[in-house]
Structures are given as structure tokens and as C-alpha cells.
Amino acid sequence: MGAIVGNVVVVIDALDESGTEMSRRRILSLLTSTEAARLPANFRILLTSRPLPDIEYVLGHSRHVLKTCLDDVPLESAERDIRLFVTNEIGHLKDIGSTEIDQIAEKANGLFEWARLACEFVRPSRAGHTVKERFDDVVTLHSGEGNTLLDATYISILESGIPTSPVPLSRFHSVMRQVLMVMEPLPMKTLSLMRMHFPSEEDRYDISVILEFMAPVLSGIIDHSTPVCPLHASFYDFLTDRSRSGIYFIDLSDSYEQSFASLQILCGELKFNICGLESSYFSNAEVADLQERKAQNILPHLSYSCQFWAQHLWRTAFDFRLATLVNTVVGSERFLFWLEAMSLLGLVGSAADALTCTAKWLL
Fold first, then answer.
1. How confident is the model at residue 146 (pLDDT cuts 50, 70, 90)?
2. Domain region containing 59
3. Do 93 and 122 meet the contact criterion of CB atoms below 8 Å apart?
4. Is residue 3 assigned to a domain?
5. What is the 3-state secondary structure (H, E, C) of the chain?
């Protein structure tokens, strides 16, 4: 390989949103390794993250890591960047001129996420209000520092899209609990398919009745092939803190619906030789069209259930109905079908951990 000419910058954005503390250990280890310290002088790594304890501790004790806190960036510099961002996002809209752009930039108080939400709110995406009226609603939100203004914006967005009458609000809680509790983000179609296996028939509805109004704060709403998840970690923090979100609070203390749905899917869809392989004497690597076979026969909702049913179970209080479903899976030939599916997914090594979780849950 020839030498790299010129400067090289590798950007790792929002490391804090990449997964759990355990899943970050490997990349943090690599970033603070002696090999990383010996990279050529024309090679730099730019990492952004909130100062979570594990990230702060590891990077803060590494000599070759230079840390800059956004709190130390002059407010004038942040406002200038936000003004450029707002101009690009909504400067073309009728009734939005330099005065309105300046007002949003100043009110953001250096907080980019608030500016992004304000632009999403002002855009003409809802019937009944003009751009000017939506702009006025944004700039008259009660001012405050940090989370105060951000929370007010989140509440305003939710109030504009989610009625507070019992049925819509209950569905909002249920759908957002599902979105926030999945172990890895899933697209809307997969979430809806899993919901069809929820224990209560009242919860078996198309989740688009809630999610289609939440494009300002969630990904995967416009492009249905994209996984649904909060666009910014602050929205997750807001929803899971009752003191901040109030009636929109999402309780993640129990994963019963997810456990039930995952086990129901395993009971109903696992089968012998699920990918229709001609012979069991070939290794997975020797099956030329294995990827196509998996895509056709192990659909995303089944793949997810195979991988994470035990993790959801671990987060759920013991329940006899769930215990019966567990027995239906691990106490029958379906157990072998599950192991086969895990092997085809390249995850058979995780099966032991799943069984350990299950055994502890049963005790």
C-alpha cells in the first residue's frame, strides 16, 4: 500500500450514543493504546461525546489525548455557527428573514440541538398554522439555561403532535417504551410486526399512528428503512426523567411486552433447517448464497428475537405466562432450531449468555 499523502482526519461523532458502557470499552482501549499514540503526524482522530464517566476517565488519563470542553468555547463563536445553520435550514421560508434567524440563534444560547429542534418546529409540516405563527410559538417559549429551554421545546413539539386525551397518550407511552427499550434500533416495519405479538390486543396497532408525528425528534420516520431512535440523546434523557417530561414520561423499569413478543415469535416462527440448506455437512462459510437465504427466511423481527429474548427476560419480573413460553422454547425441539438460527446469524457464541440469563431469571 502506498503512503498516504496529506492530512487525514478520522471523525468519531457522538461516542456516548454508540451503545452501552461495555460496548465502548474496546474502542476506548484502542484510542488510548500506544499504537494510537504512534500514528503519523499527519493523522488525527476527532472524537465528540458527552462527558460520561467511563469516557471521561479513560480519555482523561491518556497523555496523547487533547480534551476541549464546549463550555470553554466562546458563546459568540457558537452563535455564529448556529446562525449559519439556521440560515441554511429555514432561511428560504417565507416570513423568515435575518431578524428571525438572529432571534433563534440568540435564544439557542449556544445549544445546537435546540436550534435544530426550533428549525424542525418552524417548518410548515402541520396543518393549521403559518410559518410565522410557528416561529412566534418557538421564540416565546420560556427562556432558560441548558435543559430548561430544551425541555420546553420538546414539550412544545409533543403537545403539537400528541393529543393528551387518554387513548393517544397511552399509545404514545406504549410506542415510545418499545422504541426506547429495544436492544438495537429497529425500523418501523419491524417494530410494528413485533407489536402484533404483544400480550394485550389493545396494543396491537400500527405504530405509525404515533410515530408519523415525531419526525422532529426521531429518525426512521420519513425513511421507513432507517431504524427508529432518538435523533439526539437528550430526548432519551428527557423522556426517562419524570421531573422533566411530566405526562410524557416513559417508564423503562419492566420489559414484559418485549419479552412476551420475542418469545411468541420464537415459538411461532422457528423451524428445522430454517434456511433450507441442502446438506448439514457444509459449514456456513461454504454456503455460497447464505446471505440471501438468511434475508429471505430469518426476517428482522425473528433475528432480533433470537438475539435478545433473554436480555429482555432478564429485565422483566418473573411471570408464569412468560415462564411457560420459555419452557416452550428451551424445553422442546425449538431449542435446537434456535441454536441453528443463532449459528446462521453468526451469534452462536452468545447462546450461553442467553441461557445463563434465563437460568438466573427462573431461580
1. very low
2. 8-67
3. yes
4. no
5. CCCCCCCEEEEECCHHHCCCHHHHHHHHHHHCCHHHHCCCCCEEEEECCCCCHHHHHHHHCCCCCCCCCHHHCCHHHHHHHHHHHHHHHHCCCCCCCHHHHHHHHHHHCCCHHHHHHHHHHHCCCCCCCCHHHHHHHHHCCCCCCCHHHHHHHHHHHHHHHCCCCHHHHHHHHHHHHHHHHCCCCECHHHHHHHHCCCCCHHHCCCCHHHHCCCCCCEECCCCCCCCEEECCHHHHHHHCCHHHHHHHCCCCCCCHHHHHHHHHHHHHHCCCCCCCCCCCCCCHHHCCCHHHHHHHHCCHHHHHHHHHHHHHHHCCCCCHHHHHHHHHHHCCCHHHHHHHHHHHCCCHHHHHHHHHHHHHHHC
Q: Residue 2: inside a domain, yes or no?
A: no
CA angle, residues 172, 314, 354, in degrees to nearest 5: 120
Quickly count: other Cβ atoms within 10 Å of residue 295's Cβ: 13
Give dist(CA 257, CA 139) in Å, integer. Answer: 40
Of the pLDDT bands very low, low, confident and very high (cuts 50, 70, 90), residue 326 is very high
What's residue 224's pLDDT?
Answer: 83
Geometric angle at alpha carbon 53, from 49 and 59, rounded to 5°: 60
| Band (294; pLDDT cuts 50, 70, 90) | very high
**CA dist., res. 344 & res. 291, Å (int):** 9
Among 131, 161, 191, give the residue marking a domain's end: 161
Q: How many distinct structural domains can be found in the chain?
A: 4
Average pLDDT, the chain: 90
1 lies in a domain? no
Count CB atoms within 10 A of the CB of residue 61. Answer: 9
How many Å apart are CA 132 and CA 138, to the nearest integer?
Answer: 10
Give the integer Cα–Cα distance in Å for 320 and 305: 20
Q: Mean per-residue pLDDT for 61-85?
A: 86
Residues comprising the chain, all counted: 363
d(CA 338, CA 81): 52
Residue 321 confidence (pLDDT) above 70: yes
Which CA distances in Å does 85 have to 40, 79, 115, 117, 206?
A: 34, 10, 8, 12, 35
- pTM value? 0.74
